[in-house]
Amino acid sequence: MSAKSVEDRLEVLAVAAKYFASVDARDWTTHRSFYMDKVVTQFDVQADTADLDTIQGKEVDADQAVEATKHTIGNISVTQHTMTNAYVEGEGDELTLRFYEEALHHHPSLGSAPEVNTWTMYGRVVQVYRRTPNGWKLREARITPVHDVGNRDLLTAAAAGK
């Protein structure tokens, strides 16, 4: 593996970490900066929201994808997204990042009990990044949940303003 390839892989890992940090910080401007103008997303999570339904599995404007994310989790008091077992595949101007995700969502307005106000999803994630003149940008993202604990309806309730 060339030094350039190693450097590219580290840059993609850094972009992915900043991508999740921007969501957790509710910094939507920075979050948008990590996307290409068109993006394909498939977030197979427990959320019955019209916003997520409009972006699932098809190419959409990145602004629309960010707005759907913002509407779905923007009202949640605390989120924390962590990545583990990350590795990058590919060469050249398109790289694929695979990792496990733990996504904690805590929304105390739903009640005081953790089984009501907290939902944690564990999943497998695949993200495809492309090199652009402005750095590596997210082109495709898929989250496949493998387990969860807590209130599976938390995202839907938060998106509804509860």
UniProtKB/TrEMBL annotation:
Domain of life, per UniProt, equals: Bacteria
| A Pfam family | SnoaL_4
Q: Which Gene3D superfamilies match?
A: 3.10.450.50
Q: Where is the SnoaL-like domain?
A: 5-141
Q: What is this protein called?
A: Nuclear transport factor 2 family protein
Q: Per the UniProt entry, what species is this protein from, by scientific name?
A: Streptomyces phaeochromogenes
